[in-house]
């Protein structure tokens, strides 16, 4: 099967789910390099900025609490919040990787540039706009520009890794 042959979107979803998880780990490595400390992701630390509008918790932990409350009626116990936040991060990464994979299976010409654009779109629409619209993140004007740029860099890593690993996995599946 040639590299430019369209594939089943279900295969793409599966490949994208895996690639999104790997890309989420890539983001962890990125944050470790940027902050010179492994696992030092800003979403696992309280956000800077307007403390009056959002809880003093990472956005991933706030989301974990909301999901837990909807499913069980209770928030995540304090001793499990860090792990719950990491689980949310990887779940989101896998989910959006699956979405990328569904389209990438039908668009085999997509490559690194598409992944960079995808990572940028996730950063802009989910991280910068979506979290703020939900009241989970502070006003972007009250967050240093350097934090916005670091987050964009993390999403470049996510998007490019998702694109490259999805393509690699699709190629491997097409050979079997």
Can you walk me through this structure?
By secondary structure, the protein is an all-alpha fold. Helices cover 66% and strands 0% of the residues. It has helices spanning 9-34, 59-72, 81-104, 112-133, 145-175. α1 (9-34) crosses α3, α2 packs across α3 (81-104) and α4 (112-133) crosses α5 (145-175). The termini are close together. The mean pLDDT is 86.
Layout of SSEs?
Blueprint: H1 9-34, H2 59-72, H3 81-104, H4 112-133, H5 145-175
Give the N-to-C terminal Cα separation.
Answer: 10 Å
Measured as a percent range, the helix fraction is 55-70%
Q: Number of DSSP helices?
A: 5
Number of strands: 0
Percent of residues in β-strands: under 5%
Order of helices and strands: HHHHH
Low-confidence stretches: none
Largest sheet: none
In one word, what is the shape?
globular
- Class based on secondary structure composition and strand pairing: mainly alpha
Would you tell me the overall average pLDDT? 86
Radius of gyration: 17 Å
The oligomeric state of the chains shown is single chain
